[in-house]
Amino acid sequence: MKVLPATLATLILATTARAFTNHALVSHTTTTTTLHSTPTTTEKTTNYATPQRYLAPHPKNNVPPHIAALVGRGLHERPNHPLGIINAKIKEYFELRQKNDDGPTFDFFLGEDPIVTTQQCFDDLRIEPDHPGRSPSDTYYLTDTTLLRTHTSAHQSQHLRDGHEAFLCAGDVYRRDEIDASHYPAFHQLEGVRLFDPEVVGTAAGEEWVKSPECQMIADDLKATLEGLMDHLFGPVEKRWSEDYFPFTEPSFECEILYEGEWLEVLGCGVIHTEVLDMAG
């Protein structure tokens, strides 16, 4: 099976302050956005707002009751909630692009299980065993190998294995952050992934791929798509890009917008690392 070059975007929806975030579309910051086309919504069949589910006795469980009580509220699914409004605006943007530019149709996943494995959350995304994000001081563990997802990217590889070539997934994520104006231990992300046809962009890997004009083409397409999204959310706005690093994307970028006189970091993104695609099959 040929591995398809891809883009990924992860967007963070903050529940307490301004926030948005987005490899071939991936980002982590104080913002959230990413969608395309007429999405299919997965049905939510389980009530994850059950605190006791996250408090099962285990020597590695470090989920306190006040965090367990925050899980599974589905704020991003409520049409009149700020997160639901942003979610709808992002969906609208990609639906318009699909209709006007004949873009791909995205599957849309809501309400996925917030409990994931270390394989899903870290190993599948090239996050090293000694990465600080794996530490119990940064992450809420239920057992040695299960945790509350720290990003929606934890679902990326499974959706790729299931054959989805363009998809978005939104959900609540958890990190053991100190609370301040821009940090809270529970927040929301929206993730977008798009694969490209290898007949168009080739099948190079590693440094050869990163330096190729095809990789540059995908990166340029990614940036243009996200710049359009920023304008859709905020109105025409000045933007600036800088290089960034994520283990699961290469190259990786960060975008800031000039908002109310201040530069606001809104998303991180990039072209999905070829090793991540290889692991996803």
- Strand element count: 10
The major β-sheet equals: 8 strands, mixed
Task: Please state the CA-atom Rg, rounded to the nearest Å.
Answer: 18 Å
Low-confidence stretches: 14-44
Largest sheet, spatial ordering of strands: 2-3-6-7-1-10-9-8
**What structural class do you assign from the helix and strand content?**
alpha+beta
Summed over residues and divided by their number, the pLDDT gives a mean of 84
Folded structure, characterized:
It is a single chain. By secondary structure, this protein is α+β, with helices and mostly antiparallel strands. Helix content is 26%, strand content 25%. It contains eight helices and ten strands. It has helices spanning 65-68, 82-101, 118-121, 156-161, 198-201, 206-210, 213-234, 274-280; strands spanning 6-13, 40-41, 107-110, 115-117, 146-148, 166-174, 186-195, 239-246, 249-259, 262-272. The strands form two sheets. An eight-stranded mixed sheet has the order 2-3-6-7-1-10-9-8. β8 (239-246) and β9 (249-259) form a beta hairpin. The radius of gyration is 18 Å and the shape is globular.
Keywords:
single chain; 281 residues; alpha+beta; eight-stranded mixed sheet; two-stranded antiparallel ribbon; 8 helices; 10 strands; 26% helix; 25% strand; globular
Topology:
Elements: E1 6-13, E2 40-41, H1 65-68, H2 82-101, E3 107-110, E4 115-117, H3 118-121, E5 146-148, H4 156-161, E6 166-174, E7 186-195, H5 198-201, H6 206-210, H7 213-234, E8 239-246, E9 249-259, E10 262-272, H8 274-280
Parallel strand pairs: 2-3, 3-6
Antiparallel strand pairs: 1-7, 1-10, 4-5, 6-7, 8-9, 9-10
